[in-house]
Every structure is written in C-alpha cells, then in structure tokens.
Design goal:
This protein has 235 residues and is mainly α. It has 10 helices and no strands.
Length: 235
C-alpha cells in the first residue's frame, strides 16, 4: 500500500489536479466527508439508503423464496418468471424508470437499489431452502401440525446462515450501485456530490467519494455484519 501511495504521488506531480490529484488533496476531501458538517449529512444519507435497501431486499427475497417453497403453485412463477426478470433487468433501466415514475427522491434511489438487490437475496435464500435437512423438517412436522410453528422453530433457524450470506452479498453489491442510483435519482448523497464534482472537474472529490464508500463498507462489515454472522453461527 505504501508503494501504491508513493507511485500515486509521483504520478500526480506529472498531471494536473483535475486529471490526477495528489494523495494529500484526496485525503483532505475524504476527511471532510466524515468531519465537515456540510458533507457529513450526505455521507450518512447514502449509508442509510444502502442499509435500508439491504434490509428491504433481504425481506422481499426471503418472502419470495419462502412463498415458492410453501405454496407449490407459486414455485413456477417465482423461479421461472420473477427471478429471471429481476436477475437480468438492467440496472440503468431501473434507475431511469425510477426517475420517470417517482421523480428525484429518496424513494426512487431506494427503489433502484431494492430492485437490483432482491434477486441476489432470493437466489441465496432459495438455495438455502433446497439445502435444508428434509428429515429434520419431517421430524418437526411429526411433533406439530402447525406450519407456522415449524417455520419459526426449525426452518428459519436452519435458514439463518443463508439469510446472513444474502445480507453480506447485498451489502457489498448495494454500495457498488449506490452511486449509480444517486447519480440518476437523487439531489443528495455521495452520488450527488460525485455528480457535482464531475461538473466542476473536481477529481479529488471523485476519488474521495469512492474511498469513502470503501471506508464505510469495511466499517459495516466489521461492526455489523461480522458480529451478526457470529451470532447466527452461535445460535
């Protein structure tokens, strides 16, 4: 990493700031995104959108996977129609449609992120359902005929590691698409700051917003997702 930063600094002396800013300039902008009151709100808003979208996409994907498993008539519709549609629909298409349908708003940004993240969660949870121990589920049904109780006491605990894997995947992909969603459908957030930086040829801010996402991603992984994963394994 030291060699990369040194190489970056050497190259930055050969190019103008609007092409390749120095590490010091980028570091200053990066620090401002987490300390300057003018930027903290934008950073926090982007993080809140991603977290909210991951929660919603996980809930929707899990619900669709469970519906396909528990209601046989829905299995064909979910696996052969809904899943391929969501999995192949272009991200930019969702972004443009969100702006047309909902105008520039928080809802349009989260709509784009949820629609893109849902198939990742759906596929992962569906595979988890297929991998469940059929004999264990059958044994649970022999003790109770209540399907909700079997679902709550047996199926969901067995499915928890797959749900956490879906959350981890969705969290990573969510940050990859956050800027795209905000570029198209928001007047706030890190994506909006990047758009303004593009207009003013502020390359340092472009680098800073990208690195801010890397910082927030690692913080979320270490402080939230990893502890939840350990809790699921312990349970």
């Amino acid at each position: 990493m030291v060699l990369v930063v040194l190489g970056w600094w050497v190259l930055s002396t050969r190019f103008p700031d609007y092409v390749l800013p120095s590490p010091v300039a980028v570091g200053s902008r990066l620090a401002a995104l987490f300390t300057d009151p003018a930027f903290i709100g934008e950073t926090a808003l982007s993080a809140a959108r991603v977290v909210g979208s991951v929660v919603m996409a996980t809930a929707i994907g899990t619900a669709l996977a469970l519906a396909a498993r528990l209601v046989p008539v829905l299995e064909w519709a979910v696996e052969r129609r809904v899943q391929p549609l969501l999995n192949s629909f272009p991200s930019v298409g969702w972004a443009i449609l969100a702006v047309i349908w909902f105008d520039v708003s928080n809802f349009s940004v989260m709509f784009v992120q949820v629609m893109i993240l849902t198939p990742f969660c759906l596929i992962n949870v569906a595979e988890g359902l297929r991998a469940l121990d059929a004999e264990l589920v059958e044994m649970a049904r022999s003790f109770t005929r209540s399907r909700p109780r079997t679902l709550r006491r047996v199926v969901l605990p067995l499915l928890a590691p797959y749900v956490m894997a879906a959350v981890r995947i969705a969290y990573g992909v969510g940050w990859k698409i956050a800027l795209v969603a905000e570029l198209f459908g928001a007047d706030s957030g890190l994506g909006y700051l990047m758009l303004q930086a593009q207009i003013t040829a502020d390359a340092a801010m472009v680098f800073a917003t990208c690195l801010a996402i890397v910082v927030i991603f690692f913080a979320g992984e270490k402080l939230i997702i990893d502890p939840l994963s350990r809790l699921v394994r312990y349970e």
